[in-house]
Every structure is written in C-alpha cells, then in structure tokens.
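I have been asked to look over a protein record a colleague put together. Thanks in advance; the entry in question is below.
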Amino acid sequence: MTVSVFVWLKPMSVNALNYLIWKTSTPTLLETGNIDYQGAKIHYVSYGQGEPILLLHGGLSNKLSWFSQIPWLVSSGRRVILIDTRGHGYSTKGHTKLSYQIFAEDTLQVLDKLGIQRTDVVGWSDGGIIALLLGLEAPQRMGKIVAISANFHPSGVILEADNSQSVSNTGFLKSLRDWFRGVWSGAGEQHLSLEAEIMDLWRAEPQLRHSDLNAITSPTLVVVGENDIIDLNHSNELARMLANGRIEVITGAGHAAPVTHAQEINQLIASFLGIY
C-alpha cells in the first residue's frame, strides 16, 4: 500500500540519516544481482553474514523502505536479503500480469540463486501477503514469519488505498506527490502505470481462505497499527486462523509503522526472532 508524502515531512529522518551513514561507512555488501524469471529481471541485495532474514517491502515502495531495520539487523549478525518486487525499484515488470503468486515465485527464485534453503521472513503490507503465501506454498523454506499490516482478503482493507484525493490534483502539490510516489516505488516515470495495476491487484487479491491460513504452520507474528488501513478485526482473524499465530497492535501507528514507529517494530522483530 502507498505511504503519504507527508510522512516524509515529519521529523523522523534520523533513521534515514543513520542508514546513509551506515551504508557509506560500513563495507557490508555481500552480494547484489538480478535473476531472470518470467520475462522480468528481479533485483536483490544481500548484506552481512549469519542466519538469513528476508525483508519484503510493500506495494508501490521498494527495498530501501527498510532503512530503519537494515543496519541493526546486519549488526546483530543476520544475513539480510532484500528484493525489489517485480516492477518496483530496480526490478522490471516483464509481461506477466502482476499477482501475489508471481511475486512469491520471484522470491523463491532469488532464494535459490543465493543458495538459501530456509529463512525467516519479515513482510510489510504486500510483502506480508507474499510471506503468508510462501508459508502456505513453500513451508520447508520458511522459518518464522512477521507479517506487518497484511490482509488475507481484499475485504480487510478498510480505507481506499489511493489517498490522492487528500492532495490537490493540480499544481505544485500534485507534482510533489507524483514525484515522491515515483521515488518511493522506484518506478519513476512508470509509476502511474504500475500504480494502476497494483491497485487492481489490491481490489482482487489476496484470496486466502481460513483453511489456507490454518495450513501455514510457521510461527507467525501479525503486526498491525492501531490506525491502520487494515481492519483490526481482520488482523485478529488472521492471527486466530493461523496454525501458530499471534498479534501485536502498535499504538498510534498507521500503515507505515516500519517507518513511523520503527523502534516498536524493531523491538517486536527482535523479540519474536530471538535477536539479541
């Protein structure tokens, strides 16, 4: 789901600055590259060494949306794998219709390329949906799952995902909004076409049944913001239907908790995954 441009105008840039300092001063890049699958180039980066943890970003964002999580996860001794979802960031779209199924397949192809047989997964929004789908279809590859602001059915979204009407459709504010969205998704000039297809996806998918959720056996932490666009009752139902799920609600947070409430998110991830 998209994140409002105004989030970035708030005084929370210290994590972004810390990430930039870490990125330029710490020689932790282990591997970067692309895999070719179903007509697209899927871009990935792997930082650090140790037990792997896969971070899956939300729709209309890119792998750098995890800037508040990457440095401390690497410093904690984890190998951090980041993927730009098909059509986002440095990944191309190809000619395949976008779906959570193809996103999950892309992810498994990257894990195969990196030789990772099993990994913990943290997914945010669309990334959380992909993580749930991987837990269902490739359980032998999944360790623990953290699903942040994820829904298992379109009915779980209680607000219109496109909040463009809150900003003027003309003039400087529209230009600023469009520029920011292109940067945030990494799609640049292709953002509007990507946005249209992703919003169609949100209206139609995911379509996970209770039986599907019950078949996901990985220990799963469902995280949702108190003011999220994902309905709290829906999130409770998700956690309850999972074979081994529980829920945490972030007080005061909306859909962008990994950015706006990074400390709380990081503490939950650390506690759940046993990172000290």
User: Anything to note?
Assistant: Residues 1-9, 161-168 have pLDDT under 50 and may be disordered. Strands lie at 29-37, 40-47, 51-56, 78-83, 119-124, 142-148, 220-225, 245-250.
